[in-house]
Automatic annotation (TrEMBL):
It catalyses: 2-methylpropanoyl-CoA + malonyl-[ACP] + H(+) = 4-methyl-3-oxopentanoyl-[ACP] + CO2 + CoA; 3-methylbutanoyl-CoA + malonyl-[ACP] + H(+) = 5-methyl-3-oxohexanoyl-[ACP] + CO2 + CoA; (2S)-2-methylbutanoyl-CoA + malonyl-[ACP] + H(+) = (4S)-4-methyl-3-oxohexanoyl-[ACP] + CO2 + CoA; malonyl-[ACP] + acetyl-CoA + H(+) = 3-oxobutanoyl-[ACP] + CO2 + CoA. HAMAP family: FabH. Homodimer. It comes from Paenibacillus agilis. The active site is at C113, H253, N283. Belongs to the thiolase-like superfamily. FabH family. This is Beta-ketoacyl-[acyl-carrier-protein] synthase III. Pfam families: ACP_syn_III, ACP_syn_III_C.
Amino acid sequence: LRPVGIIGTGKYVPERILSNADLEKMVDTTDEWIVTRTGMKERRIAADDQMTSDLAYEASVQALTAAGITAEQLDLIIVTTVTPDMPFPSTACIVQERLGAKHAAAFDLSAACAGFIYGLATASNYIATGMYKYVLVIGAETLSRITDYTDRNTCILFGDGAGAAVLGPVEEGYGIQSFELGADGTGAELLKIEVGGSRCLTAVDSSEEKRPFIYMNGREVFKFAVRIMGSAAEQALAKAGKSKEDIDLFIPHQANMRIIQSALERLKLPEEKCVINLPNYANTSAASIPLALAEAVEQGRLKRGDTVVLVGFGGGLTWGSTVLTW
Ligand code: ACO
């Protein structure tokens, strides 16, 4: 198997900002509650005419430029999202058309907030085996479209954005070292949208009104997240033959500052080694990790040879972690 790495990253966030002060006017909440319980201060909201594919496209153009390849060189596009433009065609096909990536296969991958890690694992195997050379993996979301802005338990948590990474062959000793992926379907009911699939296609189904919004059991998801973040990272590190002390940069899914802090405690990592952008963007689901990665690259926080750990968790329940040598 040949070594595979991330050779270019990109990101995009919509311009419109929804602050805690704005939310105070919409639901019974306060800036203080939101900051102390979550760490979030503001989030980005897509314009009415911006779809998930539009956000994905912008992040992809940046990632291709950073990788120094053209869209026509792409062999595959994977979009990970819980907010596709529509059930089908896949958002990946829509992005493929906009990029003019005419030689690329394209599909969407569903693993909620762990989607980007699942996407990386899938993409890297195509390249490692020699089937493909360049694969674009995108995490993109317009969560504002599936957020109930009358529910204070959830509406404070989510935002819109996109991150993208081009994967390709790299020099021996660099790139992706290991993956740890997992799922626990017994927790499927903890975090879900009931509408839009065969269970319930539309919001009004057999006279019963269903809500086309995110439902979340926050406390149970919190407990799961605290448990899984540290353990998934530890398992990926062990598979890579590395230890916690080797970590140069830790990039966790940006769901809640307290969840991130508990992972840092378990891994005995100082906050300086962690990428934290949830004060600015809140939780952008599948976009959160690639967005944070692209920002870390932009800010010069990664140098060649660094050990980087990415870890995500989300609906499914799902989780995933990967260790990279940058
Ligand atoms: N403002 C003010 N009060 C609020 C708000 C709000 N926005 N939201 C909830 N409350 C109230 C609750 O009603 C509750 O009141 P009660 O005690 O009278 O019932 C009280 O605050 C405490 O509620 P808890 O749920 O115990 O608050 P907690 O400290 O657990 O924080 C939170 C809630 C932030 C949702 C937390 O549970 C959490 O972050 N969970 C994980 C969420 C997550 O990560 N989800 C996504 C993962 S996957 C993905 O990214 C799609």
